[in-house]
Amino acid sequence: MDSISTKNVAATFKVAPPEKDLATNDALSETFSADDVAKHSRPDDLWIIVGDEVFDVTKYQEEHPGGKKILAKAAGKDATEQFRKHHRDAILI
């Protein structure tokens, strides 16, 4: 199984604005460390980091074109590198 590296483990990530939340369009109202995000790595509570933003993709798993296994691999981690391999940046706008 491929792994997704966790970068910037000491960094604090800003929260994605509502229009950028891939799952629910609900804004998360805090900033989170990589350790905070790592706590959200279950199918019923799945967050990922893309760039310097945190996304709650829990409700998006069934709709993800690449399948929910891809999101499960990235659960609670920095998925920036993997995301950019398969998406153009404009998809987050």
From TrEMBL:
Source organism phylogeny: Eukaryota, Fungi, Dikarya, Ascomycota, Pezizomycotina
Family: Belongs to the cytochrome b5 family.
Domain Cytochrome b5 heme-binding: 29-93
Pfam families tied to this protein: Cyt-b5
Presence of keyword Heme: yes
Transmembrane segments: none
Molecular-function GO term, any one: heme binding
InterPro entries documented for this protein: Cyt_B5-like_heme/steroid-bd, Cyt_B5-like_heme/steroid_sf, Cytochrome_b5
Keywords associated with the record: Heme, Iron, Metal-binding
Protein name (database record): Cytochrome b5
The keyword tRNA processing belongs to this UniProt entry's keyword annotation: no
GO cellular-component term (any): membrane
